[in-house]
Structure formats: structure tokens, C-alpha cells
Amino acid sequence: xxxxxxxxAVAGAPIPGEKESGDLHLVEPFAHGVLLAVIDGLGHGxxxxxxxxxxxxxxxxxxxxxxxxxxLQCDKLLHRTRGVVMSLASINLTDETLTWxxxxxxxxxxxxxxxxxxxxxxxxxxxxxxxxxxxxxxRAAVLPIARGDTLIFTTDGIRSGFDExxxxxxxxxxxxxxxxxxxxxxxxxxxxxxxxxxxxxP
Length: 202
Description:
Elements: E1 2-3, E2 6-13, E3 23-30, E4 33-41, H1 46-61, H2 67-77, E5 84-92, E6 97-103, E7 107-111, E8 121-123, E9 141-144, E10 150-154, H3 172-183, E11 190-197
Antiparallel strand pairs: 1-2, 2-11, 3-4, 4-5, 5-6, 6-9, 7-8, 7-10, 10-11
């Protein structure tokens, strides 16, 4: 799928025995940018999905907001739910920067298309906690992005180490499906969001 300078795809599945997943994604454009997020409602089933939907609904209405402010507002909104863990990335298409932040165990990796001058990939340093229950101090990091860079968010229904041997140059849909098929667990809901930055037209 194409959205505001990105080619992106998602793959996911509920835990066996449940019809509804508590893991949700959001890709929402705003003026000069796009918000990318993966939200994991605690536990699974309907209560988890309700918490994730509440967070996603708020962020969908406020995609251009500061991501720290957005998480603070979600924390207030979710106090009567199970709560969620989430990772977000706000992309400024004008400056070609990515601002990201994570609370809990939604993993984030940014794969660099041109890594001659630095690391091939960078990992999101998420804080422990729960949005809606135990919110930690929030720290966002700002990174430059370039055409061809690929961002991946995964919930804890995907085993750690999924990036090993990953054919990152394949299409986002192929990458997402490969991760889910190879590294998805049957002990929790699972979701993978893959977004490749294609740049903006001059």
C-alpha cells in the first residue's frame, strides 16, 4: 500500500482460539508527514482489542501531534481499560526525519538502505511500562531517514531475532509475510508492520 512517501504492508493473526486480535496498526498521513504505529492491547481477545482500538482511534484523529503528547493523552484515555503497549514513529517528510518512541515490548528496527557511513540497522530503545497503567518517563529519538530505508514494528507475538537473515530488499508485503510465517508464535496475537520510505517528489 502507498501512503505519503511510503510503501507499506501489514501481516498479523490472532492467538489460536480467538476471532479478534488485540494487535492493531495505524498508518495515518498529516500535513508534511505520516504517523506509523503498532499497538498491542494487554492480553488477547475482545478486552485487548477494545483497548487497542481506543488508542488507535485517538491517534487517528491527532496524527500530527507530538508523539510524546500523544502517548500522554492515550495514557489518560486508557485508564479504565487493560492498557496497551505501543511504538510510534512520526515522519517529517519535509526534513526527512523520523521521531520514534516505544512503551513496552513492541519492537522497532530501522534498516538503512545505504549503510556505508554507519550501522546497517538501528533499534528502538523502548521504555518498560504500560500506556493506561504504568507510564514511564517518555524519551523520543530523532533520526534522519533516506530513500529506501525500511521501518519494521513487531508485537511480542513475533519471536525476537526475526531480523536475522531477513530479505529486507523484498517488497514490504513479502517481508511482512515472511516474518509472520517464519517467526510468528501461537502463544499470543501477532502483528508486523513494514514501511519503506520512497522519498517525496521534488
